Amino acid sequence: MLYSIKDSKIKSIKENDFRLEKEIQTLSEANLEVLFGLKFIATEFSINNFRLDTLAFDKESNAFIIIEYKRGRNESLIDQGYTYLNILLDRKADFVLKYNEVFNSNLRINDIDWAQSRVIFISPKFTDYQIKANDFKNNPIELIQITRYENDIIEIDKIKKTSNVKFEIQNGNDENILNKVDKEIKVYNEEDHLNGVTENIIQLYSDLKNKILEWDNVDIEVKKLYIAFKGKNNITDVVIQNKALKLFINLKKGELEDYNAFARDISNVGHWGNGDYEILISNDDNLEYVLSLIKQSWKKNKK
């Protein structure tokens, strides 16, 4: 429940329900960059006798994102999501062509990281069944709940996956689609980045992670090349190496107060993560100071 305060009096803020899916779609498409960090490509993109509500592009993952909007609560999201991903993988050239038409670009099929393709469902409410059916760590489908309140207040809540169970094929009729999608699309987790590194680095990462998660409203998103700690935007991106952690702090050159000159200026150097500062640590000797640097980014990029 949300409340407003006026003259020391608290008043509950009532929900102002969406009447139509189109309302959610129009609002989301006009604010994709702010809400989800995505680049809008097209609305109602038709392909293979299907109409995709919103086609977007994730610059961070270098991949296409399909967004669907729901008001009804009985749909099977897994079936629809995998069907759309299968279409995407079957018709890659059409998606690249649409991108190039919209942005007057020369993108090629091989420029895209197809393994990072995703489907996002946005709805005012998901059923417990829909949430549980989607709760697999290797599932490339994301659920985002949107709530509208009076006074033009919007709340966005990404439903986190909590299960460590992998999605497995159960329906023989869907076997070809599921196999194809699972073969081409990869959902990364922390274990993928921690495999093969030393115990010291695993412990160092765990200590760093636990400290950052003590701050308000920090989420973890595991990418192909790094693990991102995010607020409204990325706060820090962590590349796990065998003998060290490479951290990227998402602040522009000149924004970081680094009295010990611990961070490296990479504003003119190509790199994976976000921001103009890089730190390399191999032990916890300077962990508290490093956290003080990361916290500056948290203050700027928090929700």
Q: Descriptors for this entry?
A:
alpha+beta, six-stranded antiparallel beta sheet, 14 strands, Aspartate Aminotransferase, domain 1, globular, 30% helix, 9 helices, Trna Endonuclease, Chain: A, domain 1, 2 domains, six-stranded mixed beta sheet, 303 residues
What name is given to the CATH topology of the largest domain? Answer: Trna Endonuclease, Chain: A, domain 1
Compressed to H and E, one letter per element, the order equals: EEHHEEEHHEHEEHHHEEEEEEH
Reported for the largest beta sheet, the result is: 6 strands, mixed
Mean pLDDT: 91
Question: Could you give the distance between the termini?
Answer: 18 Å
* Helical coverage, percent range: 25-40%
Low-confidence segments, given as residue ranges, are none
Global structural class: alpha+beta
Count the DSSP helices: 9
Query: What is the name of the CATH class of the largest domain?
Result: Alpha Beta
Beta-strand segment tally: 14
User: Overall 3D geometry?
Assistant: globular
Strand order of the largest sheet: 3-4-5-6-7-8
Structure description:
The chain folds into two domains: 9-184, Trna Endonuclease, Chain: A, domain 1, CATH 3.40.1350; 190-301, Aspartate Aminotransferase, domain 1 (Alpha-Beta Complex), CATH 3.90.1150. The relative contact order is 0.10. The radius of gyration is 21 Å and the shape is globular. A six-stranded mixed beta sheet has the order 3-4-5-6-7-8, sandwiched between helices. It is built from nine helices and 14 strands. The mean pLDDT is 91. It is an alpha+beta fold.
